[in-house]
Amino acid sequence: MANPKRVLIVGAGFGGLAAARRLARAGAGLEICILDRRNYHLFQPLLYQVAMAGLSPGEIAVPVRTVLSKYKNARALLGEVNAVDLGKKTVQTDFQEFEYDYLVLACGAQHSYFGHEEWEPFAPGLKTLEQATEVRRRVLLAFELAERETDPVKTRQLLTFVVVGGGPTGIELAGSLGEISRFALSRDFRKIDPRQTRIILIEAGPRILATFDASLAQRAQRDLEELGVTVWTGMRVSGIDASGVRLGNEKVESKTVLWAAGVKPSKLNAALGVELDGMGRVIAAPDLSVPGHPEVFIIGDQACFTHGPGGRPLPGLAPVAMQQGRHAADNILADLRGGGRAPFTYADKGSMATIGRRRAVVEMGKIRFAGVLAWYTWLVVHIFYLIGFRNRVLVFIQWAWAYISFRRGAQLITNPGWRSFPSDGQQP
Amino acid sequence: MANPKRVLIVGAGFGGLAAARRLARAGAGLEICILDRRNYHLFQPLLYQVAMAGLSPGEIAVPVRTVLSKYKNARALLGEVNAVDLGKKTVQTDFQEFEYDYLVLACGAQHSYFGHEEWEPFAPGLKTLEQATEVRRRVLLAFELAERETDPVKTRQLLTFVVVGGGPTGIELAGSLGEISRFALSRDFRKIDPRQTRIILIEAGPRILATFDASLAQRAQRDLEELGVTVWTGMRVSGIDASGVRLGNEKVESKTVLWAAGVKPSKLNAALGVELDGMGRVIAAPDLSVPGHPEVFIIGDQACFTHGPGGRPLPGLAPVAMQQGRHAADNILADLRGGGRAPFTYADKGSMATIGRRRAVVEMGKIRFAGVLAWYTWLVVHIFYLIGFRNRVLVFIQWAWAYISFRRGAQLITNPGWRSFPSDGQQP
């Protein structure tokens, strides 16, 4: 028998982990190694619930090595990739060099401030658990500081929340802020009335939820407005600092600005020496390989895949990454068995976004619905896809409890510098 | 009717919160304000389980204002006390000055390195949630780095854990490390065998669990040794740095040192201008007031109370703080009703410590037992005293799942600087 083929997978998100599991199950003849900067797989679709004090970090994350524990041909390692040499077939990490027979790149995306990186301290994004607990800290701290503030102008600034970006994440954040202020916190304060909280959702495009049908976007906007969210479309942010957000001549005074506007792919892409799209994503071949490098696959948010119907790039969604991960694995297995590779086709199961309690929108091809049924669909799908039986039970209990009590389960102000906003200087 | 009496409570630990609830329930004629640096009450007896990846922070903490939500005469504020003027009856905070008619000081304790504050970066203590997730980060990171390490000397250093201090916290940490390495992680690694992990518990005194009966301490030591923990008694740490622990001429090479050795009271005490004991705690009068200041009460770890049988100071335990908090509240209420104050007497319900799965020790007066029954007692008592119905359910599920699966529920390496030890420099 030949030497086992070394498959190196970079990134343990939805794409990388799906590829690793499919390959590990296939078993013989493979030596699988999955590298990630983190020791856990993160269920990103529920990250906004950590940011909004509904769930704890441990409930939406599961260690990569635990997921792969039973597959003895798969190895998980904590590490960061510094460079990929497609010619030599090597990967440089922070601790050693890897040689590979097959490489699966699934490094995902991070936040993009469209060239305004100086906004980041004042408007954190939502891609990591640290960012989520940082957003949670700022939101809860704003209410705490407002309760002890005597100046009405400063109180108003503390009780103004701005969410930049009208995609699903922005909707979910703004809707949750509406619910927190109107329900979860409403009885807990003595001086301020959290129901007076101002929440502004800013979208540069002509409408929110641009990837959804216009009717659902309208419904979502109405739902948001019922929760007290003011939706501003067609408005472009021109500045963010410690005091708030600037939009051309206008200025919104706010201590808490959240960024849900743009993403960019891993910075590894630029150094690969292959063709990228306008966003910096690697343009994938129909079989998901990197053109000219059939042994290298590129999947998920790191890739641009346009070979589907209509030629439009696939969106940056978990189902796309998972299906691509499994497909890349299948193509590797096809090579080893001497079969031919299949082109990837995305089976669109639809997309959804939740606005709040009993409010969501679901779009599955021509089928579109909103309201309570959409909300239940959202709940079931998210519990179902969550990895780990215990996590499912814990999240289910947190949600059931929040539904009954109108409260949130993780209202903790933690992290270093927990008592100040970035502008105020650190007071540990 | 007279003006309501202003009661200011500093600290929302077991003592302060017990006082606030007792006073709030009494209702009329009182204006209660509770100040804390944090927005949550922390269930400290289970903090070691957060450090050992068994529980999430949100499961052992509950927002102070949520606990007091239904009492309209009680107000919770986030803030830090800078100074107390017992003469003027004022308290200076980071945001305003408070005047009080009654003051309850319940600021607790923090870690003490016996004058070696330079050890702290290399040997974190366990008093806050940030410290707990920091300990969790270091412990899990040590295993991850060992898995990818090729140098056997460095691997051994990474797989050596030192716990300083043989009290209940030290026992619980060392026992949990034994369980994690032998059970929770045993199947997840490919290169290292976590069962080879070296765990050393260092105690300066002649035996561990000095406050327990010698027979229970012996039993606990045997239990620890069965879990692979080496217990060194009568050994004094003379140095801690990035490479390990020095004990006189000996040196233990270890990347992960945990500090569970000493505490000191709030630094407010020194500025009060009243009599302190050798540890810096305020010596309380029999009615829990500060001698010479009948309107000021001092409770919990911040106080030294010696008026019980035998004249020995009461230990720094949650039941002491809770009973004192309720008693201080009762004495304030007695004043208002024109009754006489009662001296405080501690109703000793016993003490307990857990070593691991089905292993614990319990001492209630003359009744002492260990093993499975003690462990169940420990579980029931800790679930019972945990505040919040949801927290009880979540912790119960985490424990039941851990018991069945031999796994842990929160194995996340998070926090800034998550990929390095203090000595290695920050690699964000």
Summary, kept brief:
By secondary structure, chain A is an alpha/beta fold. In chain A, 30% of the residues lie in helices and 25% in strands.
**Runs of chain A with pLDDT <50, length 5+?**
none
Helix/strand/pairing category of chain A: alpha/beta
* Largest interface, chains and sizes: A-B, 57 and 57 residues
Q: What is the terminal separation of chain A in angstroms?
A: 61 Å
Q: Order of strands in the sheet with the most strands of chain A? A: 5-2-1-9-21-20
Please give the largest β-sheet of chain A: 6 strands, mixed
Strand content of chain A: 15-25%
Description:
The structure is a homodimer of 428-residue chains. The first copy, chain A, has 428 residues and is of the alpha/beta class. In chain A, 30% of the residues lie in helices and 25% in strands. Chain A contains 10 helices and 25 strands. In chain A, the strands form 8 sheets. In chain A, strands 5-2-1-9-21-20 form a 6-stranded mixed sheet, with helices on one face. In chain A, strands 13-12-11-17 form a 4-stranded parallel sheet. In chain A, helix 1 runs parallel beside helix 8 (318-336) and helix 4 packs antiparallel against helix 5. Chain A starts with a strand and ends in a 23-residue tail after the last helix. At the A-B interface, strand 5, helix 4 and helix 10 of A face strand 5, helix 4 and helix 10 of B.
